[in-house]
Automatic annotation (TrEMBL):
<dbReference type="Pfam" id="PF17764">
    <property type="entry name" value="PriA_3primeBD"/>
</dbReference>
<feature type="binding site">
    <location>
        <position position="401"/>
    </location>
    <ligand>
        <name>Zn(2+) 1</name>
    </ligand>
</feature>
<protein>
    <recommendedName>
        <fullName>Probable replication restart protein PriA</fullName>
    </recommendedName>
</protein>
<keyword id="KW-0479">Metal-binding</keyword>
<dbReference type="InterPro" id="IPR005259">
    <property type="entry name" value="PriA"/>
</dbReference>
<dbReference type="InterPro" id="IPR042115">
    <property type="entry name" value="PriA_3primeBD_sf"/>
</dbReference>
<feature type="binding site">
    <location>
        <position position="398"/>
    </location>
    <ligand>
        <name>Zn(2+) 1</name>
    </ligand>
</feature>
<dbReference type="GO" id="GO:0043138">
    <property type="term" value="F:3'-5' DNA helicase activity"/>
</dbReference>
<dbReference type="GO" id="GO:0006269">
    <property type="term" value="P:DNA replication, synthesis of primer"/>
</dbReference>
<dbReference type="GO" id="GO:0006302">
    <property type="term" value="P:double-strand break repair"/>
</dbReference>
<feature type="binding site">
    <location>
        <position position="433"/>
    </location>
    <ligand>
        <name>Zn(2+) 2</name>
    </ligand>
</feature>
<keyword id="KW-0547">Nucleotide-binding</keyword>
<keyword id="KW-0067">ATP-binding</keyword>
<keyword id="KW-0639">Primosome</keyword>
<dbReference type="GO" id="GO:0003677">
    <property type="term" value="F:DNA binding"/>
</dbReference>
<feature type="binding site">
    <location>
        <position position="407"/>
    </location>
    <ligand>
        <name>Zn(2+) 2</name>
    </ligand>
</feature>
<comment type="function">
    <text>Initiates the restart of stalled replication forks, which reloads the replicative helicase on sites other than the origin of replication. Recognizes and binds to abandoned replication forks and remodels them to uncover a helicase loading site. Promotes assembly of the primosome at these replication forks.</text>
</comment>
Amino acid sequence: MTTTRPATRVAAAERPVARVLPLLGVPHLDREFDYRVPESMSAEALPGVRVRVRFAGRLVDGFLVERTAHTDHQGELAWLERVVSPEPVLTSSLLRLVDLVARRWVGTRSDVLRLAIPPRHAAAEKSVPEPGAPAGVSIGPVELPTGWEDHPMVARFLEAVTGGVPARGVWTVPPGRDWARSLAALADSVRRRGLQVLLIVPDQRDVDRLAAACREVVGGGADGRDLVADLSAGVGPSARYRRWLRAVRGHARIVVGTRSSVFAPLPEPGLIVLHDDGDDSFVEPRAPYPHTRDVAAQRSALEGTPLLLTSVDRTPEVAEYVRTGWAHEIRPRAGLIRELAPRVVAVTDADPVQARDVAGGRTRLPAVALTMARESIDVDAPVLVQVPRKGFIPTLLCGSCRTPARCRRCNGPLRAGRMDEVYGPVELACGWCGAPEPGFRCVACGSRALRAGVVGAGRTAEELGRMFPGVRIRTSGGGEILDSVPASPAIIVSTPGAEPVAEGGYGAALLLDSWALLGRPDLRAVQNALRLWIGAAGLVRPADEGGRVFLSADSESAVAQALVRWDPQGWAERELADRAEVGFPPAVHMMAVDGPAAALAEFLEDFRFADSVEVLGPVDLPPGEELPGHDEVEDPERVLLRVPPAMLNDVAAELRALIVRRAGRRSTHPLRVRLDPVNIG
């Protein structure tokens, strides 16, 4: 840390002007300001370092963007107060990416920088060795990584990656394939040729799994394991910054992280891999709310870094990349999917034979599902049961007309304190006001009968325990998530995304209550349901080894057929075409502008593209959405803008200009802008 006393300040002999971006978080001040560099700081005050400057009478943090010899400022320049660290963390390539993200997602660069660069820890800087000489790219034929022999196209992709070609690929994980081991082998192949690899996954569980696979593949004891760095907030700020420095100084050659790692400025980037782009964890909850997949795509285009998008399913956004030729699919050899996929049976409760209750009213499992489970247990294989919700019975419906059971006092949802085997839910109480409900009667039809709306994991485990006495029942989800289970008779009841891996694969999987996923009021509800189903079904043994999957959905529906035929690519292509027909992302962009009703009225008056883009609303803010300072916001509303892709940059610039003008007028409640929000409303 370098400081000077005002009396001893002498301007630097060379390039005495520092162009600094203060981290103010205010839209109308999102620009560089010039400061004079003291000679005593000249050696450390280099582009990319953290500095402190005085702004409006107070000290603020910032980044030194550029050193120049002259300034356009009329008047006396303030002095650079301090070089916080000589570490150049804001590289030129990262600054270009930050500029692009701020413009595209209508945010400020200071907000993006807080996402991109972790907070500094001085001890971590001292503990990490200085950058060494570049490793250099090795020359020679590219060999297929271990486990990729059934994907001959990957050799051409790796040749392009190591040859400096900005290749972009899409890989759909085959059923039964350990995606973590496959990606680890691919990353190690690129690492051995002198390049760094960035692997981005949704959450900490995936980080742990993938980092362990990478360390196993790299080998070589402690030195080899140090070649892998895992970046996530869960390790703590000091450890996170130390690992981040190991990556940006070039010591870590394989970097595994969550969404913010997409910004990591690697000195020798060879490949960026993003796995499971349909996971909502990739949507940044902080302004300007970018999606990691889109940031990775923009970074690939901006820097020319090769990109690989992998998943067990296919999102319409990735299908659009393939359709336009921006990315190319890495296909397996012919017939591989048919060899590895389990047999899938889709049955709806509209089928009176297959879906009849064989347990005398004590379970909702149809005969075909119970048969699958019994056959799996008979061959000493575990059974996976996926339920959409955790807990016991999250919601209750009228047993006759399926109207949600509501409290007669406050209209809140009724909850069951416990369940009786014969009489169903007892000890009813309101989930909002807590008032007991001793005599429920449906307001729609007058019936006193109740049924579970979505039976949770706890209730399902209880049902299965009665159906399979002597078989171990385990749950995974909520506070306790299992990583793996042995190849022995057991029933694993899991919530979506928390399914453990079974040694040798599951003998059967039962995917229950599909309507709870498909019925969500969300544009991406069906897409998310298929992703969760295929992720669970992919853990089951191949059909030739007896693997079976039961799906409680209409077998004639397109999404059920996508699972039955194991064709997520075909479903994504059809979904993309359907969305293009009705004007939904990714065919067009949807920009959600949220704010108080009065502020949105002013916005619509000033918005100059109102005749060029489709304006929808204003409408009430969707349930579950809250504005910053929501307690003080009256009448929160949303306006949706349907923007053609060719106009996105112009519309984003216009929105930014409007927000800057509002900030300059010190408007009480600023507008919030989200590009392609997950919850459109």
